[in-house]
Amino acid sequence: MSMNSSMIPILRLAVPVVAAALLVACNRGDKPAPTSTASPAASVTATPTSTASAATATATASATPTATASRTPTAFPTGPAGPTPPAGYATSCAAAFPWGRQVTRPFVCIEEPKAAAAFSRGGPLLVRGYAGGSFENNVVVQVRLKDASGRLPEKPLFQVPLTYVAPDAGMPGFWQVVFTLPGDIQASDGRVTALFFSPKDGAVVAETSVDIVVR
Question: What's the number of CA atoms in the CB half-sphere (13 Å) around residue 139?
Answer without folding.
Answer: 33
